[in-house]
């Protein structure tokens, strides 16, 4: 594949690093018949799909939103990679009817499990479409990070609501259906028969410090370095805004 030319938001640097590291593993492609296939379920307007297509991968985005898919198509055309990006309208839990089971080398499912009807059915579908040896990149909202970020700005009523709600929501007006505790997300990902190989915190402190807002010279760079140093390190990774898990479907 070509050198990687574009990177999504720097806040997702650790996820990009894990995903591109996974796609660079030559042995995994050998287990999949045909070209390396990447499916980005709930991929929206292509924040990951388009940079991956620019890097040379064929990417199918499955998303129920016609508006998001229209944005994706425009973005892919603007980037000159329309021929490597396929837009399919549909839901995560219907994935097996949209993508051939056992055929996919990498499934991305980023910031989607917190809004689907059934995270379990979605994970089962993701596991079904993966080829043996293929991997899933799952990014989920972390309840712990959400509680701490609200508490640190003094919004203790929202922090307490999140802490006590069974689904980790802040009332009925919350746009998310749920947030996950870190171990809960890891258990969910493994429940479909996948083996969890890596877990990271994404934005360990980025939402809790002024560093990301460039309040002093070098602060943003210092924050990036801090994030890189703590992303894989417990307990820091477990207070991040999001939890990222890479899990693999066993061969045989
Ligand atoms: C927060 S956006 C995330 C977009 C992209 N994955 C990213 O990380 O930038 C959530 C996306 O999930 C899609 N979505 C909502 N419900 C879904 C479902 N049941 N199955 C698949 N995608 C869904 C939305 O249309 C939206 O594009």
Automatic annotation (TrEMBL):
Instruction: State whether keyword DNA damage applies.
Output: no
Q: Does the keyword Metal-binding apply?
A: no
Q: Which InterPro entries match?
A: Methyltransf_25, SAM-dependent_MTases_sf
Q: Which GO terms describe its biological process?
A: methylation
Q: Which domain of life is it from?
A: Bacteria
Q: Where does the Methyltransferase domain start and stop, copy by copy?
A: 38-134
An example Pfam family from this entry, by short name, is: Methyltransf_25
Task: Extract the GO molecular function terms from the UniProt entry.
Answer: methyltransferase activity
Q: Which UniProt keywords apply?
A: Methyltransferase, Transferase
The protein's name: Methyltransferase type 11
């Amino acid at each position: 594949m070509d050198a990687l030319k574009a990177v999504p938001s720097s806040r997702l640097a650790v996820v990009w690093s894990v995903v591109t590291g996974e796609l660079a593993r030559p042995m995994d492609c050998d287990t999949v018949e045909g070209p390396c296939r990447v499916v980005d379920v709930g991929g929206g307007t292509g924040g990951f799909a388009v940079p991956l297509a620019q890097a040379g991968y064929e990417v199918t985005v499955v998303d129920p939103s016609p508006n998001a898919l229209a944005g994706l198509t425009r973005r892919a055309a603007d980037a000159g990679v329309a021929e490597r990006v396929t837009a399919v309208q549909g839901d995560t839990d219907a994935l097996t009817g949209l993508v051939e089971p056992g055929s996919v080398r990498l499934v991305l499912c980023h910031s989607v499990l917190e809004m689907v009807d059934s995270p379990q059915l979605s994970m089962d579908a993701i596991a079904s479409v993966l080829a043996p040896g293929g991997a899933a990149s799952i990014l989920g909202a972390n309840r712990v990070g959400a509680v701490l970020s609200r508490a640190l700005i003094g919004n203790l009523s929202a922090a307490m609501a999140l802490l006590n709600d069974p689904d980790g929501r802040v009332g009925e007006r919350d746009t998310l259906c749920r947030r996950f505790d870190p171990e809960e997300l890891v258990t969910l990902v493994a429940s479909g028969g996948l083996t969890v190989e890596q877990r990271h915190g994404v934005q360990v402190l980025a939402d809790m410090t002024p560093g990301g807002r460039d309040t002093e010279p070098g602060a943003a760079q210092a924050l990036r370095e801090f994030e890189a140093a703590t992303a894989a390190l417990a307990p820091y990774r477990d207070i991040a805004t999001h939890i990222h898990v890479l899990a693999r479907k066993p061969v045989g």
